[in-house]
Specification:
The chain is α+β, with helices and mostly antiparallel strands and 375 residues long. It has helices at 7-18, 41-45, 57-60, 68-75, 116-132, 171-175, 182-190, 231-258, 279-296, 313-328, 340-348, 362-374; strands spanning 23-29, 34-38, 80-86, 89-99, 105-114, 138-142, 148-152, 195-201, 204-214, 220-229, 262-265, 268-275, 300-308, 332-336, 357-359. It has 12 helices and 15 strands. This is PAS domain-containing protein.
Length: 375
């Protein structure tokens, strides 16, 4: 036996519906006389003072006479749906014929619903969709099963897809093998974490951010995927890195030229130092000098400080480190060209000069190397 809804329940539901500020119900008989006028929406529609029992339709809608033909069409037996604006509100109006005991039309009812808020939400959604479809990105929303529910974006055309075409598609089945790390990124989003994966499509490179998606209660509802084309950006980054490498190589070449390693005998090397000695320059000098000592089998390495402007604790430490490295290779390090101001600064810094083999000039160092080699 089919279940039926009792009249009391129907009346309760109708009463609660009409308590809404955005709902109104008006009924008329066959003579266009009002037989019912309920709902807080009557005031918003501007007919509350006239929609009283016994009033005529013409009186109720004196300010909106364009509604009368619609009422009369309904009284002729036709269901009608119209939309109208009252004040700042947008109303949906549903007209239904009311049959009498003999089945003939005995009156009509109009249910009016304020849909302004719904239309505003729809318009906002449409504007957002237009925005997404005009920016260089793709936006997808998937549920916990991986079923796509939203597929929009200005880059869809790049992969031959229309907006909305992916809706209903299971992204795991369609792209699990195409986008590396997609399954893990989606699982992370379902756990509330964000992931970024990169993948190639044709000759283009894309970056996809996968973000958590939650329902109104804050529970996981799936994921949002936002894809952008990073092909040009990656090319620019590679170009920049290449240019930086070239600049660094040129800088190192200049530093090497500013501290050339000169072979001054069959077993002696000389490095004339000019200017200051910072960490980068000291590293280049040490690397080049140690390689040259091994390659030339040199017994002496002369560091000439004639052109050094000043010495601070840092540059002195670099100098001592170079000397120790030379000694570890079995060669003798000789310091020449220490001018009085530099000697005074080194003494003030507490550098133990007795640990260094120092000579007055490069000529003295060359003479020392020659005599030592003859012995």
């Amino acid at each position: 036996m089919a279940a039926t809804v009792n009249s009391a329940l129907k009346f309760q539901v109708l009463a609660e519906l009409l308590e809404s500020e955005g709902t109104a119900l008006i009924c008329v008989d066959g003579q266009e006389v009002v037989t019912m006028a309920e709902g807080r929406g009557l005031e918003a529609m501007g007919v509350a003072d006239r929609a009283t029992l016994g009033n005529s339709l013409a009186a109720v809608f004196a300010r909106s006479p364009e509604v009368l033909p619609v009422w009369r069409k309904c009284l002729s037996g036709e269901r009608v749906r119209t939309e109208s604006v009252h004040g700042e509100a947008y109303w949906l109006q549903l007209f239904h014929p009311l049959p009498g005991p003999d089945g003939a039309v005995a009156g009509a009812a109009m249910l009016a619903i304020d849909v302004t808020r719904d239309l505003t939400t729809m318009r906002q959604a449409q504007l957002l969709r237009e925005l997404v479809n005009n920016v260089p990105t793709n936006v997808f929303a998937v549920d916990l099963r991986g079923i796509c529910e939203v597929s929009e974006g200005g880059l869809l055309a790049e992969i031959g897809v229309r907006p909305g075409e992916y809706v209903g598609l299971n992204v795991f089945e369609a792209y699990g093998g195409v986008i590396p790390g997609l399954d893990e990124a989606m699982s992370a989003a379902f756990r509330g974490e964000q992931r970024v994966v990169e993948f190639s499509f044709g000759d283009q490179l894309y970056s996809q951010a996968t973000l958590p998606r939650r329902d109104a209660q804050g529970n996981s509802a799936g994921a949002f995927c936002i894809s952008t084309n990073i092909t040009e950006r990656r090319r620019d980054e590679e170009l920049l890195r290449s240019q930086m490498r070239i600049i660094q190589e040129q800088k190192e070449a200049i530093l090497r030229l500013s501290s050339p390693i000169i072979e001054v005998g069959h077993d002696a090397l000389a490095v004339p130092l000019v200017g200051s000695i910072d960490g980068e320059r000291a590293a280049i000098i040490m690397h080049g000098l140690l390689e040259a000592i091994v390659h030339k089998r040199a017994r002496f390495a002369i560091l000439d400080l004639t052109g050094v402007d000043t010495v601070d604790p840092t540059s002195a430490e670099h100098l001592i480190r170079i000397i120790h490295s030379v000694r570890l290779l079995g060669a003798q390090a000789i310091i020449t060209g220490i001018r009085p101001p530099i000697a005074q600064i080194m003494a003030e810094l507490g550098i133990d000069l007795s640990r260094l083999h120092t000579l007055r000039s490069l000529q003295d160092a060359l003479r020392h190397c020659s005599e030592s080699g003859a012995r």
